[in-house]
UniProtKB/TrEMBL annotation:
Keywords: Cell membrane, Membrane, Phosphate transport, Transmembrane, Transmembrane helix, Transport. GO terms for molecular function: phosphate transmembrane transporter activity. This is Phosphate transport system permease protein PstA. One of its GO terms (biological process) is phosphate ion transmembrane transport. The lineage of its organism: Bacteria, Bacillati, Actinomycetota, Actinomycetes, Micrococcales.
Length: 362
């Protein structure tokens, strides 16, 4: 007597099997966002379409989605699945809310900055310019030169300090004292660094002295602790086996650090240096005290005042002339140029880290 398998009459759907279809959460999210958009569009009826609140639409839509996905998942799936979907939606909503200020900031700066983002802005200074026109080439050069000098001062000091703390000063009182001072310096206000450098030069040269090198020194006071802390942590995670292998071959300690430890951590060290540069390149208060502001190009760090993008942006927005729109447009364009400079520095750092990182393949 032969038996034959009986095929099921129908295949149960994913919904009846206790799982929502993959498209269901996305469809529910679109519906919730559409409802929130409708509510805010109705509230803004008769007003300027540019006043439509996109941020609150996203926030309200995400809150509505979290409530509905929990209810729908509880009914169609189970309480455990509903809790999982709720936590996933909550984490995703937190990410979106954290991203909103950044996106809004970039959008605002780009939209307003493109008005004066032209060839004149990067080829002209404000020398003999009273109203509209002019540019920020003097401020751009000042920012690059002052930041470059601050980097040249800060990186060797910060890197050698971190090498001492990791390789030579482990467990010593001097290393603990340096670590404490670095932690304190990390939290000092930027204007304090500017006042410190201004006071030193006022004692050495005279009151009212302002030069580009003073700004570089003020920025280096802020950069050094960032470089030290970042490089120190990266040097600590270099495996001790690499050092011991070099010592076993008779390589002296200083050469082991130079040829083994630093190349292993070079990618992370480069990132920490770029973070330090990004930390100080937009500082206004110390540069306003130590460098001042001029309307023409000055590339000599050791003579006279210089212009920088943060101070230029501040002065254009704080003290607009006639027409005021021209000054505000220059301020937005200067802010956009500063963001682009930081972005380029980050890209260059990524390339350098990738080129000089140790090769792991055979």
């Amino acid at each position: 007597m032969s038996t034959t398998a009986v095929a099921p009459a129908s295949v149960t759907s994913s919904n009846t099997a206790g799982h929502l279809p993959k498209w269901a959460p996305w469809a529910l999210l679109v519906v919730c966002l559409a409802i929130a958009a409708t509510i805010f569009a109705f509230a803004n009826s008769g007003g300027d379409p540019a006043d439509f609140n996109i941020a609150m639409t996203l926030v309200v839509g995400l809150l509505l989605y979290m409530v509905l996905i929990f209810i729908v998942s509880t009914v169609a799936e189970s309480r455990r699945h509903a809790t999982d979907r709720l936590m996933t939606a909550l984490v995703s909503a937190a990410f979106v809310v954290a991203l909103l200020p950044l996106v809004s900031l970039l959008y605002t700066v780009v939209v307003n900055g493109l008005v004066r983002f032209d060839a004149d802005f990067f080829s002209m200074s404000m020398r003999n310019v009273v109203g509209a026109g002019g540019g920020a080439v003097h401020a751009l050069w000042g920012t690059l030169l002052i930041t470059l000098a601050a980097t040249i001062i800060s990186v060797p000091i910060g890197l050698m300090t971190s090498i001492y703390l990791v390789e030579y000063g482990a467990g010593k009182k001097l290393a603990r004292g340096i670590t404490f001072l670095v932690d304190v310096m990390t939290g000092i206000p930027s204007i304090v660094a500017g006042l410190f450098i201004y006071s030193v030069f006022a004692l050495l040269i005279g009151p009212g002295t302002r030069m580009g090198i003073m700004g570089s020194l003020a920025l280096s006071v802020l950069m050094i602790p960032v470089v030290v802390r970042g490089s120190e942590e990266l040097l600590r995670i270099v495996p001790n086996e690499l050092r011991e292998a070099a010592y076993a071959l008779g390589v002296p300690k200083w050469l082991t650090i130079l040829k083994v430890v630093l190349p292993t951590a070079i990618a992370g060290i480069t990132t920490s240096i770029v973070l330090a540069i990004a930390r100080v390149i937009g500082e206004t208060a110390p540069l306003l005290l130590t460098v001042g502001m001029v309307q023409s190009l000055n590339t000599n760090l050791f003579s006279g005042q210089m212009a920088t993008l943060p101070v230029f942006t501040y002065m254009q927005a704080k003290y607009p002339g006639i027409p005021a729109e021209a000054f505000i447009d220059r301020a937005w364009a200067s802010a956009l140029a500063l963001i682009l400079v930081v972005m380029v520095l980050n890209l260059v750092a990524r390339i350098i880290a990738k080129v000089f990182a140790p090769k792991t393949g055979r």
